[in-house]
């Protein structure tokens, strides 16, 4: 790959400690560290509820920090579960703070929905990220259904098809930076 380290901001849509989505991001960061320097964003729950009245030149400091991390990253990975046929509220809230900016415009982005079903949540994630003008395609988005049976407590992918799909996904994602 390139001589420059590619900086990736990884965002999990789950606020659960050690969730399946967090484990997937850890898997990616550990198995592809020769390609990427991955920072897993830990501040999702600290971002205040979106309020257009506060979306000014001086937004809340947590929002400003989140936006700066996105802006400074070469690419963004989002891995989220589906909650009640939608995105988790905390992830949607964080993304709403980005609508008035251009920080996702043409930003190389990888999108993973890992959940029991995930179809509707994934569809919404794709729509939101398209609205934010993030750069992704069919090869840099992935739906993993039945995730709990495909990853163990230690974060090891125990399903060969899922492991292969993740490897293909990350290879396509990495190729965007060549």
UniProtKB/TrEMBL annotation:
Classification via SUPFAM superfamilies: Flavoproteins
Domain of life, per lineage: Bacteria
Pfam families cross-referenced by the UniProt entry: FMN_red (PF03358)
Residue ranges occupied by any NADPH-dependent FMN reductase-like domain in the UniProt entry: 6-134
PANTHER family: CHROMATE REDUCTASE, NAD(P)H-DEPENDENT FMN REDUCTASE LOT6
Protein name (Swiss-Prot/TrEMBL): NAD(P)H-dependent oxidoreductase
Organism field: Flavobacterium endoglycinae
């Amino acid at each position: 790959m390139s001589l420059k380290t590619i900086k990736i901001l990884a965002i999990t849509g789950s606020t659960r400690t050690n969730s399946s989505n967090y484990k997937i991001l850890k898997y990616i960061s550990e198995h592809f560290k020769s390609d990427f320097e991955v920072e897993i964003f830990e501040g999702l729950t600290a971002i205040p509820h979106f309020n257009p009245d506060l979306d000014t030149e001086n937004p809340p400091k947590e929002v400003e920090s989140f936006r700066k991390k996105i802006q400074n990253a070469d690419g963004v990975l989002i891995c989220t579960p589906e909650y009640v046929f939608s995105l988790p509220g905390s992830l949607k809230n964080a993304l709403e703070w980005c609508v008035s900016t251009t920080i996702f415009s043409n930003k190389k982005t990888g999108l993973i929905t890992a959940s029991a079903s995930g179809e509707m949540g994934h569809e919404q994630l794709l729509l939101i990220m398209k609205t934010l003008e993030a750069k992704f395609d069919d090869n840099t988005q992935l739906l993993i259904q039945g995730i709990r049976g495909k990853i163990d407590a230690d974060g090891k992918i125990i399903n060969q098809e899922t492991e292969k799909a993740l490897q293909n996904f990350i290879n396509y994602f990495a190729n965007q930076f060549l």
